[in-house]
Amino acid sequence: MVDKKFEVHSETGVPPTKASPDVRLEAVRFSYIHPETGSVEALSDVTLTIERGTHAALLGRNGSGKSTMAKLINVLEMPQSGTVFVLGKNTGDDSAFWQIRRSCGMVFQNPDNQIVGTTVEEDVAFGPENLGIPTEEIRRRVDEALHYVGLSDLAKRQPSQLSGGQKQKLAIAGILAMQPQILLLDESTSMLDPVSRDEFLAVVERLVKEKNMTVLHITHDMSEACLADRVFVLDHGRLAMSGTPGEIFSQVQKVRSLGLDVPVFAELAYEVAARIGYPLERQTLFSRASALAGIRKMLRLVPSGTHPSGVHPSGVHPSGVHPSGVHQEAAPEASPEAASATASEAASATASEARSEAAPSAAQQGCPVVIPAGGRTVLEVSHLNHSYDKKNEPSLIDISFSVKEGEIFAIIGHSGSGKTTLISHLNGLLRPKDGEITVSPSAGSVLLNTRKNADVRQIRRVVGLLFQYPEYQLFEETVERDIAFGPSKMGLSSEEIKKRVHDAIILVGLDESFLKRSPFELSGGQKRRVAFAGVLAMDPDILVLDEPAAGLDPTGRREILSYAETLKRRGKTIILVSHNMDEAARYADRILVLKKGEVHALMTPAELFSDARKIRELGLCEPETIACLTDLQKDYPSINTCMFRVGDAADELIRAAAAGGAL
Amino acid sequence: MMKDISIGRYYQGDSILHRLDPRAKIILCFLYMIVVFMMNTVEGILATFVVVAFLCVLSAIPFMTILDSVRPIVFLLLFILVLNILTNRTGNVILEWGILKITDIGVLTAGLMSLRLFLLIVSTSILLTLTTTPLLMADSLESLFGPLKKLRVPVHEMAMMMSIALRFVPTLVEETDKIMKAQASRGAEYDTGNVFARAKGYVSVLVPLFVSAFKRAEELAIAMDARCYRGGEGRTKLHVLHMQGKDYFWLILLSCLAFLLIIIDFYVKIR
User: Fold this and answer.
1) What is the CA A404 to chain-centroid distance, rounded?
2) How close does chain A come to B237, measured CA to CA in Å?
3) Which CATH superfamily is domain A23-249 in?
């Protein structure tokens, strides 16, 4: 951790000195051949340095060249021009090849596709076996590595019996047994739930601290990037930013224009500054503590007794855009597509924050209870019990709830809490042996029951179900035929099918030019949208979405979730399965907390998160906005902490400050 | 859930046969195969029956589980029995009815043939499939066929392929289940309509399954590359197969029994 200065494009041509850094890229270019567009430049003129013992994060949109960079370091690819030095050795040097590769361990995104061994310990042994290490030494290393990541008890298990988090820890153990110096993590946490993710990251942190390992962590998660010592941002193959997390995330607009998010605390400080027209200092955004200190300082400047919307002298506004207080009234329905436009980036992102059904007025005391729109029950689960086989523990215990028309109903819970089992019951994929599920479609007044064989076909049309990672279910030759698969099973006329396919593809933000293409040549995010469209084309009343945004970059996440809101406005009912607390709180009307197969809470986000003790009991984490507001509440006791959108939270802060009461 | 799927028919246990070095078991398995086919006398077959029964006791596997392994070939056994009885026309006639003629030698050969097949299945199950995990089998085949490497037979690669295939069976089974559920949610039906409609239903499962299997293979190859895999050369192993005293003891004892059987059969025949 020698220099923490910016060093974008500034150090070309410096030969490695004696104390050479662990990783050094010099003017590296790499392009690969794409079947349609010809040669695509994945990295162009990238120069960067990572010192020993540094935890570096690599950010960027999907397709910005992040994975390519990791592969260049691990000599899985060679640069077309420029040089990559690893541990002072040139990756182009054949004699250094094995030495470099054995000193770089790499953990990939999909836990399943990197496990070779038939048992846990066999898999850890795979690397050392390849290196030709004597058997006794392999034994010692395997035991040590498994102990280090906490999997010793599972040494004899089959990999398929492990959870996703355990599989990724196994991958780390397999690398540790090779005793590398550099650890490359290629979106290794993106398929994990929050608890497994924290455990995984804790292991990584320990490796940096205890073993002085150098880590390059490719991620889409900004809170993970904040754990790093250095952050690099790639954009279209170029190194766009480089610095400490504080230096990076203080440039809120630039970060957003690169398709990334900023941490909630930085966004909140930025929004408050925007509202009172205060020029924000960079240092304010370096950490949560400094952001909160900065917010306190700014709030002291708010004159008592002022109305929040009257506080922005437009001239000194730091970003040059209108404060979002204005947008809140003017553009409550701002289109999500606008979020990608760079110019109005900050403004529209704020507007999307504010795009709630009715922005809660600032003056309310206590948490508001949002009564779901409509009120007609469209789906009812009563006393549902389920177990996969008699010996095991039941996976669902006495589940009862009803979903109202037009609401976004979130189901949250850790992996293994029974979420997937529960939603598989909702459209009759699993049929209840004990308990009942009834569906009331908008057309006709019949009540459908998943227990009745005759009803199941009808139920699958009314309840559309989109599983996790749905892109794996595409199979037709063209996108059009794939989307039409569902509707054509419903016996619709060909014109009707055509119309539905068209509507569906537009709704998910793609255009008609995609219809004739093969789904297999699309990018991951586009495939996800096509799969989404395939369910939408069946025009279901109720849409069950299982982690629809999992594994996407921040822009993709926002867009996919915005479709859920669009659908809600069209009168659809959405059941959203998630383990992301911030998202559930922000989008859902009601939240059902599932824990070990039981319903532990069913309430509005405001009710749920107003009770800090209850949240801890349920093993959930607070949304970041609430955590920030709770801290500031010490100074401004009148703050209502139940705010899930950053824009609302900033408004609330200013209202509380204007009302007076700073201690 | 299908997570705990078992591959092959391995029966968890800790008997003498379970612990015996798998290479010894493979050798013995071949030896007993040959012995069973060499038996031509009633005495020889009966003696073999006794020895195989002894192996069953050594394996400590419930009797019914062992019989289960014969179930798939019950029809074949009956077929062989009936065919031999009806076609063998040498020896003394016991029963004659129209063109049907059943002789004593016919019944005897038929009995011997089916008993032989029965013993063959039981002895291979006991010695190999029921007491050895597929992974150990792959390992020991690599070790036994090791000398073929000199003839450039890719023994290591084949064993590696076998063990990776075993590793991915549960993963792909789980994935098949997931895809079938996803397509069923989109209205696919697998159990209605005629043969063509059903086959078409399965296309929607097989295509994504193949696509994903290829993707997995590609990613796995990169992951193996990243972990310095470079074929069998210079590779060491965590679990090295070691023939110990007790392995030699049982290998020799059971081989002696096999030879004893051959001698009994031979002696009875020349008498």
Assistant:
1) 27
2) 5
3) P-loop containing nucleotide triphosphate hydrolases (3.40.50.300)
